[in-house]
Predict the 3D structure of the following.
Amino acid sequence: MKPEAVVLQKPMDPAQATLANGVYCGDVFKRLTRFDDGWSSSIAWTNYLGYDTPGEMDVGFPGGSGRILTRSGKSGGGVPPKDNFDALGRSILAVKINDAQGWAAVLIDRGPDDDNPGAQDCEVIIGKFADVLTPDLIAALRFKSYIGRTP
Amino acid sequence: MTTPEDRIRQQRLRLLRGLQTPRVYDPGPLPPDLLQKQEIMANGVYCGNIIQSLAEAPHGDGKVRYPLDYFDEDEDPILTPDTEANHKQDADNLPILAWAISRGGWEAWVVVDILERHKFKLSPELITAQDVTPPLANCKVISGRPSDVLPQEILEKMGLI
């Protein structure tokens, strides 16, 4: 079922449907990644991770096929890196880590919302690091100590 | 002057470079409208994360509610009531996206869509391409006594009055 179909009555415009999709995905994201179960307490937003990673960082969803666009990391401020989607229009917006288990929960922009023209849809996916994160993202999360804290 | 041999050599070099460059990398600009949608979605994720955190905190009752839990999808969005508490939070008459209540029902937290408020505040003559960024859909979480922040219809359906 589409996130927005759970949340909203009649969306007033595509932006509201997109916002509602985000609210539901944020709720699910939190519910599936409880701190007591070993998940990181904070959300790693990929646009901020990009600040600390020199060069280009690929945050396209790794399950996709086709070309993946990249974005440039900026150190010490500047314009946030923004070029971040694969050929299917999907990209990773946020990550939470369960370091002890080797799991990552990714919140992805999964592309256009079929039920609401002009709106964007999201999805939460949990998997092993290598299954749901690009190598660039794993490196950035390691750099920021989201990964590698557990001996 | 470029000879045919030079052209072949250059072509081979281009091919080699192409092979050496990982094919998954193809830097390019993200379309501005998609960027804006992602920002709106991230705003929603932020609010959804907060409301679930409040619901599952020790004083919350563990459940996030949505309009569709109580109303039909073909109805107009349910709005926050016009109360003093909501006025103070600049959140009266705004579409409700989600809410949670405390154990015992003495406090409520509500995710509201503040896009409409931006539209209201930015009158058309103020919005020019040069000086005002178009308002993005955004949300915020308000709190208060259920009777102050939630409308009568929700309070009735939840048995809070």
Q: What stands out?
A: Residues 3-143 of chain A form one domain. The mean pLDDT of chain A is 75. Helices of chain A lie at 3-7, 14-32, 46-52, 129-132, 135-143. The first strand of chain A starts at residue 44 and ends at 45.
